[in-house]
Design a protein that fits this description.
The protein has 284 residues and is of the alpha/beta class. It contains six helices and 16 strands. It is globular.
Length: 284
């Protein structure tokens, strides 16, 4: 369902008014005002999101996992080299990102999408996630794009909203863009790269959803993490669910050095906290 003409016109009026009354450091909120409001604790931690006065995201309601193992499923072409039984384990929680939902017969406990371009280009896959029984982590902008196209009452998953940090800046939902304080106790810092220990106080992205996913995985208290389809080579190849004709662009080739250094930070964090991580696609 696409936004109606009247809804689009009304939003454009809101954006125009917002631009007049708010400074540039608030401009990332022009799509949201006055349709959204948020609830935070005294430290600024994002707790709840309301859309048109309806609660759409409750970060306080987290369902604890019953297992210590999870598998993060990314979308690199190497995922197709793994046997099907890898994705059918009963003692593992499966966590998907972006187009991983295109893999058949996997029940995802959690799912992460932070790329608004993916939401725009592959809403067919986004809708499959929304109709599943999972916990769905996304950003304010992606959430807004979703609620423009589908009624909240038609969404089956549980939504959690995170605010991502890019180049140490966080576009705070319904507040001013801010430079994050890396000395905060909820951040682990190594070589000036950050890893968030509390995802609802900000989550570092470093240009890849996989890094955001690792921070979410950590927040769910898994002690063994398996990673499939995280390909850091052959960036020109389509993702497993794409063809050469519908391949979406990637930032990994441009920012590969940054991404690898970020993964080094995550690896150090996991090592210090005795969390075991296994790459199922070592030649990718």
């Amino acid at each position: 369902m696409l936004p109606s003409l009247s809804d689009t016109l009304l939003r454009n009026i809101y954006k125009f008014i917002y631009k007049i009354f708010y400074p540039k450091t608030y401009k990332h909120n022009r799509r949201f005002w006055p349709l959204y409001r948020v609830q935070r604790n005294e430290h600024g931690r994002l707790e709840k999101v309301y859309f048109k006065n309806q609660l759409v995201s409750d970060n306080l309601m987290i369902q604890p996992s019953t297992t210590s193992k999870c598998m993060l499923i990314a979308t690199g072409p190497s995922i197709q080299q793994l046997p099907n039984e890898v994705f059918q384990k009963t003692d593992i929680d499966y966590i998907g990102v972006n187009g991983a939902i295109a893999l058949d017969n996997i029940h995802y406990n959690s799912y992460i999408i932070i790329d608004h371009n993916f939401v725009d280009a592959r809403f067919d896959l986004v809708e499959k996630v929304l109709q599943s029984n999972c916990t769905f982590y996304t950003t304010p902008r992606c959430l807004d794009m979703i609620l423009r196209r589908i009624k909240f009452t038609d969404i089956q998953c549980s939504i959690k909203t995170i605010e991502t940090i890019t180049r140490d800046l966080m576009e705070v939902f319904l507040d001013e863009e801010m430079l994050v304080n890396k000395t905060a106790e909820h951040f682990f810092i190594h070589d000036d790269f950050g890893f968030s220990k509390d995802i609802f106080n900000g989550t570092f992205d470093y240009f890849t959803v996989a890094y955001v996913a690792l921070q979410i995985v950590n927040s769910l208290n898994y002690t063994e993490i398996f990673i499939a389809g995280l390909d850091m080579s052959n960036f020109s190849k389509p993702r497993f669910y794409e063809t050469t004709d519908d391949k979406q662009p990637t930032l990994l080739d441009i920012h590969s050095e940054t991404v690898l250094r970020a993964f080094d930070t995550a690896a150090l964090f996991f090592k210090e906290h005795q969390i075991n991580v296994y790459n199922l696609s070592p030649n990718s």
